UniProtKB/TrEMBL annotation:
Record InterPro entries: UPF0014_fam
Membrane-spanning intervals of the chain: 23-45, 112-134, 140-160, 210-228, 234-255
Protein name in the entry: ABC transporter permease
UniProt membrane topology term: Multi-pass membrane protein
Primary residence: membrane
PANTHER family: PROTEIN ALUMINUM SENSITIVE 3, UPF0014 INNER MEMBRANE PROTEIN YBBM-RELATED
Similarity-based family: Belongs to the UPF0014 family.
Entry keyword set: Membrane, Transmembrane, Transmembrane helix
Subcellular location: Membrane
Length: 270
């Protein structure tokens, strides 16, 4: 991935034609009202359709606003200090682990979610730092690591939930496999593997349709920052490929944890 380009002094200043004569989203009262209306619409539709997630949507929206406000206020301090940078990255990881684990199960085995997320993210981030593609500075490391942790979180949740749901629904098949002589792990894998692999579909579809259906955030952000279309495309390609690697590892590890009974919903039950 090419380094983020250094914008020459005076090039593409805010308000110039490169930004369409204005910033992309002005932070003002209008933006706040529009966001509030959109959040209420999302919760309202969920309530009318009886999806059972209306309250969660409202809470998620408010939390996102508060968390982003805090991060925006603290980011300038974090990027200038290595200890603070490491603490911030660890906080991101810890929140991802708890979120993913609690989505899979409510018992103490949720802590195993730390393994698939770390297994997917740490090697990729380490390789990027060692090769110099991403400098060890907060302004570059935080967004890249955040994207990868978010991808690992999503893959872990989807893969783990689908595997556990499938084992519950097809418990009889697992027991039949054990009766035929299969090890517990192997019998569970035979049932859960295909379901867990569905967790890779969102990332695959996003990668296959990039540029045709959507222009993802990394691409648009690079363009707005003054990068050339080629540089922006290279960065976006890197993000998508890295995400596929991270998610493939995360799904594989969480599937193995479920198959070995490390992550479960009811002790002693498939």
């Amino acid at each position: 991935m090419p380094r983020l380009p250094h914008r020459a002094p005076g090039r593409f200043p805010a308000g110039s034609p490169a930004y369409g004569g204005r910033v992309l989203l002005p932070v003002n009262v209008t933006l706040g009202v529009v966001l509030a209306v959109l959040l209420l619409v999302a919760a309202g539709v969920a309530a009318v359709a009886r999806l059972g997630r209306a309250r969660e949507i409202l809470v998620a929206g408010v939390r996102a606003a508060v968390q982003l406000a805090v991060v925006a206020a603290a980011i300038r301090w974090v990027v200038g200090s290595v200890p603070l940078l490491l603490c911030f990255l660890l906080l991101m990881y810890a929140v991802a682990v708890r979120t993913a684990g609690r989505r899979m199960t409510s018992n103490a085995t949720w802590r195993w979610a730390a393994l698939p997320i770390a297994a997917g993210v740490v090697p990729v981030v380490g390789a990027l730092l060692l090769t110099g593609l991403v400098p060890a500075r907060g302004i570059a490391l935080i967004p890249v690591t955040g994207i990868l942790i978010g991808g690992a979180l999503t893959a872990t949740v989807l893969g783990g939930r689908r595997a556990l749901d499938e084992l519950t629904a097809r418990r009889g098949e697992v027991e039949a496999g054990m009766a035929l002589g299969l090890l517990d792990r192997d019998a569970r894998l035979e049932v859960a593997r295909t379901a867990a692999s569905d967790a890779l579909l969102p990332g695959l579809d996003q990668t296959r349709t990039v540029g045709l259906v959507t222009l993802p955030g990394a691409f648009v952000g690079m363009l707005l920052g003054g990068a050339s279309p080629v540089q922006a495309g290279a960065v976006q390609l890197f993000v998508l490929v890295a995400l596929m690697a991270v998610q493939a590892v995360a799904v594989s590890v969480v599937l193995e944890l479920v198959a070995r009974g490390r992550v479960h919903r009811v002790p002693g039950v498939v």
